[in-house]
Design brief:
By secondary structure, the protein is mainly alpha-helical. It folds into two domains: 3-53; 77-108, no CATH class. Helix content is 54%, strand content 11%. It contains four helices and two strands; from the N terminus they run αααββα. Strands 1-2 form a two-stranded antiparallel sheet. The protein is rod-shaped and about 95 Å long.
């Protein structure tokens, strides 16, 4: 028997315990006392079982869902239209060059 089988069996046993608790209508404190379980054990396994049901955040995609790729966003830019000509500038654009082009276009229009 492998270690994983034993862990899976324990989780399965605790899932049954949680179902019994739900059906009992008792408080966690009373339920644990009646069964000789510490509240710490109960909460530990409740967390373990709940976490085992969750899909891994970055690696698995739940059935019926599609994973979206995080596309790199384009740099912020501005487009200037002067006399029918468009100039697009971003953070790396030499502003003095844009200014000279705009002045030249203004003179020709």
């Amino acid at each position: 028997m492998s270690i994983n089988t034993t862990k899976n069996q324990r989780k399965s046993e605790w899932e049954k315990v949680f179902q019994e608790k739900q059906a009992s209508g008792q408080t966690v404190k009373d339920f644990c006392k009646d069964r000789g379980i510490t509240i710490g054990q109960y909460n530990y396994w409740l967390k373990k079982v709940r976490n085992s049901r969750r899909p891994a955040a970055a690696t698995e995609t739940p059935e019926g869902w599609a994973r979206l790729k995080n596309e790199s966003r384009a740099k912020p830019s501005v487009t200037i239209e002067v006399a029918g000509c468009c100039i697009t500038a971003d953070d790396d654009t030499d502003l003095s060059l844009v200014r000279r082009i705009c002045l030249a276009l203004r003179e020709t229009s």
